[in-house]
Structure formats: structure tokens, C-alpha cells
Amino acid sequence: MALELAGFRIRERRKQMGLTQAGLAKAVGISPSYLNLIEASKRNIAGGLLNRIAVALDLDAETLAGTTERRVIDDLDEMAADPRLRVARMPEEGAQDLVARHLDWAQSMLALYRAYLDQAETVAALSDRLGRDPFLGDLIHQVLTHITTIRSVSEILENVDDMGAAQQKRFQGMMTEESAKLSDVAQALTDFFEVPEADTRSVTPAEEVDDFLIERRNHFPEVEAAAAAMRTEVERQGETMMSALIDYLDRRHGISVVNRGRDTTRPSAGERFRNHCRFEPESRTLVFLDNASISTRRFQLARVAAELTLGDSITREIDDPRLSTDAARTQAFRALASYAASAALLPYDSFLEDAVDCRYDIEVLRQRYAASFEQVAHRLITLRRRGAEGIPFAFLRSNPAGHATKRFPLPGLPLPRYGHACPLWAIYQSFQTPDRVVRQLAEFPDRGRFLFVARTVTKQPATFHEPPVLHSVMLACEAVHADETVYADGLDLSAREMAARVGASCRLCPRIECLHREEEPIVRSEAH
Predict the structure, then answer these.
(1) Segment holding 386, helix H or strand E
(2) Whole-angstrom Cα distance, residue 114 to residue 76?
(3) For residue 295, what are the domain limits?
(4) DSSP string across 395-455
């Protein structure tokens, strides 16, 4: 899937520039025969070779690798997994062929499919209301009753010729009364259906934010620069980052920081604590629950500081057509405020240097920066500055039910937007060994190999009566980068039998023999 896109682009761009295979091969330091295999989509490229070819062809490496196109392919594959499209019998390679040659058509097809899902969701919501709402059922019964009465009265008035004037007036009165009642019920029905439904759009605000971040490679240079400037200002306020942030919020924005225990003996009156804290703008107070960890406190202090100090910079970034609703823009604002907090607490240059030095050992990085496992993992996927990039990582967070609560995919590694991923992935295995890092060398049916690194993260309860909140966080990188990390130590990356044979999801995986299969695949391949 990834091979054809890169090979097709290299071949077309080389011809456009008037270069021969021998000339381009010499410029990038490989043999013409190897370049021929790449252009024929028989060899994969990544890392340094991809960058050298991109420079020689005067293209951006992301454009050459086809990041946008691969995301469209992943979405088309998910579309093909819809049981309602099973009769179409779409070929396994059809998505990549369509995207490689007609990207606009592929995107239009997805737009139509999402519009179809919007309509299907709306119909389902209305059907649910029709079938379950007792008020609606009663209204419909009243409509039928009034219509039946009006029909009976009208038949009497039409068919009885010798009716007296008094009787005729009485029946006409009944007709008027029943008509008025029917009109009232009809108005009630109209009012009922005019009540705004819960958002039934197939593309939710969270998904729009995902697309926005992915399209921007989850790297925002202007936000990075603004966060660095804010850190410099904050560091003047106190001896430790925690105390400096508290003083900064007080002096710069007039915000006080307090602790509060959770009182479970009385209703919360709608109070909600996100990540163990809540900002109260009326009293200019940032409230932390007593059980908030040190890393959570530092991060949330930095996030609130970023929202208030860097609001204009963040607002400019989210002025993007991909964010089509106020809800999506609100979520994007919060996401970039968190991004800025991460950039302030884990400065790009020093963090990247330390990550390379310790070979991306997350445990070392979290201790060095007083951060959580998830905070370090989040920062690692933002190291995409051109000319100073870290390992390209994918990110996935899941709850114990298998629902993906955060995602950032990689080209060639589709992460589930809907439903569950393959149950063999390390992110699910980590729930069996809480608080321990699980590593996994995984091979997909298309022979793509990735290193998965997963660990559970737990939000501790505030009181005895509250259960802990458990998630699993996973980073993934292509196997070609695995030996740059501590997680490849002791693994024979060249031995195919060492890799777990996984898929994207059951419906997209052709491994018929898999004992963990829950659904039939939509494609079959004799090669697997």
C-alpha cells in the first residue's frame, strides 16, 4: 500500500525533472537496479534514503511518502469494512490504485460516504425516538384518534340528508373542536421534532481535530516558539517550575491555585474535574483535587498559562477549514493549549537530545522531566521539526473496553477511527500486566513491520468510593527505526518468526487462520 504511492511519485517526479534512473541513483547513493525496484513498488523506503530522494527531487519528504494519501487509503479501507458494502466485493488493492491515480475522486467518495453516514445516524436517531419515546407514542395515538373522529363526523354530515339544523350545528361544532385539537397535536409534534438532537454527524468534532492535527503532522512551529518564550518568562518567577508557574499565574493573570478534596456525600451540582483540576473563571481560581499527581499539576498549570498567555497564537492556528464547528474549534484550542504546555515543560531541543541520548527510554525521560508516561509519549510524537526530527511515532490510547480515546497514525500504520483494533496489539496486552512496559515486534499482512511499546496509565481515585481510571498508551514506529530505541534490545529484528502476526482489525485482516478472529474479513489473500 505504501510502496506504490512512493514509487509512483518518485518515477513521475524524476521524469518531470528529466532525470534518468542512473542519475538519480547516483545522487542518492544507491544502485540504479535498487532504484528501479523502488519505482516498481517492490522495495520500501524510509528514513535517510527517503529524505535523500526527496532532496534530490526537490520535494517534501512527507509529500513524497504520501502521508495524506495513505490516510485516505486507511479511511477507504474502513469504508470497505462496512457490512453494508460487502456485496461490492471491492478488491484489496483497489483503494491504493484509486488514491495513487485519482486522489480527488477518492476524497469525494469519502465525503459522500460520510454524508451517507450522517443521514443514517439521523434516521437511526429519529427511529429510536419514534420507537421508544412514550410522549411521541401518545401524540401519534391522539392524531389517529382525532382524524378518526373528524372522518366519522364528516361522513355523517355528508350521508345524512334529513338532519335537523340543531344536530347539524352540533356535528359542525364537533368537527371544529376536533380540528382544533388535531392542530394542537400537530404543533406539539412539530415542536417535538424541532428540539435539537444530539449531534449525529458521522465526523465528530474530535475526529475533525484528529484530521487537523494529522494534516499538520502534529507540529506547530509558531506555538513551539511562543511556548519557549513563555517558559523563559515563567522561569524568572520561582526556583522550581511548579512554584514558578503558580507565581506566574498569580502575577500575570491574577489566578490563585487551591486544593480541594472530593466530597462524595453531596451532589456535585454539575461540577466536573478534567484531569483532576478545574478552572473557575468567575473567581479566577484553579482548583486541584487532592489526589492530583505532581506531573498532572505541573502540566495543568502550564496548560492554563498557555490558554491565557498564548490564546492569540493558538486562535490563529485553529483558523482552519477542517474545523467546521464551534465544538471542533473549542477542542482544537484545548489540544493546542496542551501542546504548548508540553512544549514549555519539555523544550524541543533539550528533550530531543535527551531522547536520542537515552535511546527513547520513556522511563528515563519521565524521571528527567518529572512527567508522566503519557506526557512523554505525547511529546515524542510532536518532534517533527524539519531538519531536527525524532523517530516518527504513532500514538494510540485505549480504555479497557478497547475504545480508542486518542490516536495519531503513521503512514502505513492505520489506527482505528471506529471500533477496535486487532486484539493481538500490545496496547491490549498491557492491560494484563499493569504498570509494566510491553514491547512487541508486529508484522502486518502487507509485510509492514512495526515496533509497539505500550503501558497502562492510571488516574488514582480521590476517595475510597471511587475506582481508579485505567487506560493503556502505545507508541509505534516502523521496524527500521527500532534499533534506535532501548525497546529493540534483545530482539532479532531480522527474524520473521520473532514478529507477532497481527492485522489492523478483523474485518481488514486476511489471516483466515487467526484464532483470535471475531469477524469475517472483507478481503481474502492467498498469500497469507
Answers:
(1) none
(2) 11
(3) 203-345
(4) EEEE-TT--EEEEE-BTTB---SSS---TTSHHHHGGGSTTS-EEEEEE-TTS-EEEEEEE
33 confidence band (pLDDT: 50, 70, 90): confident
394 grid coordinates = 504513532
pTM score, whole prediction = 0.68
Examine the domain organization and report whether 265 and 394 are in the same domain.
no
Q: Which amino acid would we find at residue 175?
A: M
Last residue of a domain, one of 194, 225, 245: 194
- For 334-361, the pLDDT digits (tens) are 999 999 999 999 999 999 999 999 999 9
Burial of residue 87 (CB within 10 Å: 0-12, 13-18, 19+) is exposed
Q: How confident is the model at residue 199 (pLDDT cuts 50, 70, 90)?
A: very low
| Residue 284 Rama label (left phi>0; alpha psi -120 to 50; beta) | left
Distance, in Å, from the CA atom of 156 to the CA atom of 135, rounded to the nearest integer, reads 32
Which of 428-431's residues contact partners 24+ apart within 8 Å by CB, and which partners?
A: 428/398, 428/402, 428/472, 429/454, 430/454, 430/455, 430/456, 430/472, 430/474, 431/400, 431/456, 431/470, 431/472
Asked whether residue 13 falls in the same domain as residue 83, the answer is yes
DSSP reduced 3-state for 124: helix
383 assigned to some structural domain = no
- What is the per-residue pLDDT across 445-501, written as a single tens digit (0 to 9) for each? 888 899 999 999 998 777 777 888 899 999 999 998 999 999 999 998 888 788 999
Residues 69 and 99 in one domain: yes
Are 180 and 101 contained in the same domain? no
Contact 280, 256 (CB under 8 A): no
**Is there a contact between 420 and 516 (Cβ–Cβ < 8 Å)?**
no
Domain of 247: which CATH number? 1.10.10
| H-helix or E-strand spanning residue 460 | none
